[in-house]
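Before relying on records like the one below, remember that each one covers exactly one chain. Contacts with other chains, cofactors or solvent are not represented anywhere in the record.
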Amino acid sequence: MDGIAIKKILAPVDLSENSEYALKYAKLLSERFGAALYIYHCITDIQSAIGYVPSLPASQIINSMRADVVKEIEHFRNRYDLNENVEVVIEIGDAARKIVGFADKNNMDLIVMGAHGKGALERFMFGSVTEKVMRLSSKPVLEIKLNK
């Protein structure tokens, strides 16, 4: 394919088995193309998702969630030897919109995502993040289905 260079790959993970599987593909692609790999996780902004709850210490919950995410991503990094040319990004907000925004802002060449990482109830209530990213993104999106 003339004129197509893959130098930056975005791998959004929700810490599910599907997203971990997709991360393996993203790593292989980054090695094949010599591309930088960005592991991305978005924590849902609970204040906007459920509204203001005065007894709920949202910042403490988000900080705790962030610490858990960092720990899990470190496991991924160690398990799959993801240390060179890998950057980890954790943001807060609406996952699909944040992923697309990050990809645009940082000139990603490819987004590699797992298919349906969350459970059926979450997909019914919120829709698939991967499907939303595919609809909203101007960047190519590679959807990886879990091979079971």
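The first helix runs from residue 17 to 33.
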